[in-house]
Design brief:
Largest sheet: none
Number of strands: 0
Order of helices and strands: HHH
Radius of gyration: 20 Å
Oligomer: single chain
Structural class: mainly alpha
Strand content: under 5%
Shape: extended
Distance between the termini: 48 Å
């Protein structure tokens, strides 16, 4: 569930994206993309649900291994 503040932010984002494409500040393919993202944000705000919250535990489970940067000086390792 999205909090009330999250819903408000998504509605403001949705309205601003619709304003940008509707007033022709943005045209062409980018305006289409703004319209599509605006509809998605409006749907998530009205349903108070975001699929990103379901993906977060899956992403955290897949990060089992730590990535070591190659510039670290590891003992016994020569580049």
């Amino acid at each position: 569930m999205i909090s009330k503040n999250g819903v408000r932010i998504r509605i403001v984002l949705c309205l601003s994206l619709f304003f940008l494409s509707g007033s022709q500040i943005i045209t062409g393919g980018l305006a289409t993309l703004c319209g599509v993202v605006g509809v998605i944000e409006l749907a998530t705000a009205l349903q108070r649900y975001s699929p990103v919250y379901e993906l977060k535990p899956l992403i955290n489970k897949s990060n089992k291994f730590k990535i070591v940067h190659s510039s670290y000086n590891l003992q016994g390792y020569k580049a």
